[in-house]
Amino acid sequence: MTDWPPTRAAALTRLKDFAPQAAGAYARRRNLDLPGHPNVSRLSPWLRHRLITEAEVIAAIRDRHGPDTAAKFLSEVGWRLYFKGWLEQRPAVWTAYRADREAAWNEVQTQGGLRQRWEAACTGQTGIACFDHWAQELARTGYLHNHARMSFASIWIFTLGLPWTLGADFFLRHLLDGDPASNTLSWRWVGGLHSRGKTYLATPDAIAACTEGRFHPEGLAQHAHSLDGPPPPQPRPLPVSDRFDTQGRVGLLLTEDDLCPDDLLDRGLHPVATATLQATAGRSHLAVAEGVADFTTHCTADCTARLADRIGPVTACPDGAGIVRWAADNRLDRVMMHHAPVGPARDALGDLRDVLNARGIALSVQVRPIDALAWPHATAGYFRFRDVMTEVIARA
Ligand SMILES: Cc1cc2nc3c(=O)[nH]c(=O)nc-3n(C[C@H](O)[C@H](O)[C@H](O)COP(=O)(O)OP(=O)(O)OC[C@H]3O[C@@H](n4cnc5c(N)ncnc54)[C@H](O)[C@@H]3O)c2cc1C
Fold this sequence. Notes:
Strand order of the largest sheet: 3-2-1-4-5
Protein name: Deoxyribodipyrimidine photo-lyase
Mean pLDDT: 97
InterPro entries: Crypto/Photolyase_FAD-like_sf, Cryptochr/Photolyase_FAD-bd, Cryptochrome/DNA_photolyase_1
Number of helices: 19
Cofactor: FAD
Radius of gyration: 21 Å
Distance between the termini: 30 Å
Helix content: 40-55%
GO molecular function: deoxyribodipyrimidine photo-lyase activity; DNA binding; FAD binding
Keywords: FAD, Flavoprotein, Lyase
Order of helices and strands: HHHHHHHHHHHHEHEHEHEHHEHH
Oligomer: single chain
Bound molecules: flavin-adenine dinucleotide
C-alpha cells in the first residue's frame, strides 16, 4: 500500500502534485478508472483521518484555480461534507446498518449457497471479470476509483443479489478511506435507499467507457429495483462546540477521525498529556484488513510524532473506559477533543462526557468551523446542499 505513505507530509505532497490538474483536466477525465488512477487526487485515505483537512484541500485548490474553474473538484469534496452532515443528523441509520449487517451475516452463516456467493464476491471469483478485478484490486491496494465503487456496488446488489450491508462491510474492511458516512450512504444511494427510489444500475457500456474498453461485461442485471427500507429518520440537532477553556490541567484526546489538532494548539491549548483512540476494529464484525489497521495506526503515530513537543506524553487508549482511566491518572480537569462524528470511534467513546463529569472532569468538544457551517444544510439531497458550498469554499 505504498501509494499512501501514512504521513501528513505525504498528503501535502500529493495535494501539491495534484493541484495543477484539479480544474479542467479533473472535470474531463475524473470518471476514467485507469491503472494507477492518474485522473483523480487519491487524497481520500488522508482526508478520512483528517491528516489533511477538507478546508486545507478546498483552500489550496480554490486559491490556485478560483472557485468556478475548479467547481467540479470542489463539489466532490463537498460530497464528503454532505454525507458526514447527513449521517450526523441521523445516527440511527448507522445503528440500523450495523443491525442489518448482523442479520445478513447470520444468514450467510446458515445458508450454504449464500455463503458461497458471498465468498466468491469477496475473493473476486464470480466470473464477472471487472467485478473480480475490482475485488482483488481493493484487497491488494486498499483503494478503488469512484466509478469502480459505483459499478461494484451495483453488481453486488442487483446482479449477484447479495445483501447491500455485506458489500458495505467488505468495503469498510478493505478501504483505506473506509468511512461510516461516505460508505454507508453511497451503498444506500446505489440501492435506492438514499434518494428514495433512485438506484444506480451499472451498464456494460458505462463500464466500458470508464475503463477505456478494458471491460465490457455480459450478463449484468438489466433492471435495478429499489431496495426496501424504512424512510430515514427525522434529522436531530447537530453538535455545537463547547466553551474553549484551557484553564487547569487539560488533556488532548485524538481519535482516528481527526488527526490535525494544530488549530486547537494554535488557539492556546497546552495539553499536559494526550490520549489516542484507534477504533478501526469497530468498522466491522469481521477482521479489518491488516493494511487498513496499520494505515490508521501509522497516521496516528505520524500526528503524535509531528506534534511531540506540543502535546505531552501520549497514551493509546482502547475505548472510553481507558480514556477515563488516563484522565484520572493524569489528574486532568478537562479533556479537549475535536468532535468525533457518527461511526466506530464515537461508538467506542460511549457516554464519555457523563462518565468524566461524574469524576469531576469536564469534556470540551470542538466542532470544526467547516462542519458547523456545512452540516446543517445536509437535510435532504446534495442538490440543496450545493448552495452552502459557495460559502464553504469562500471561507475555507
Ligand atoms: C459504493 C461507494 C462507497 C464509497 N465509500 C467511500 C468511503 O468509504 N470513503 C470515502 O472517502 N469515499 C467513499 N466513496 C466516495 C468516493 O468513491 C471516494 O471518496 C473517492 O473515490 C476517493 O478517491 P479520490 O480521493 O481520488 O477522489 P477525488 O475524485 O480526487 O475527490 C476528492 C475528494 O472528494 C471526496 N469525494 C469525491 N467523491 C466523493 C463521493 N462520491 N462521495 C463522498 N466524497 C467524495 C473525497 O474525500 C475525495 O478524496 C464511496 C463511493 C461509492 C460509490
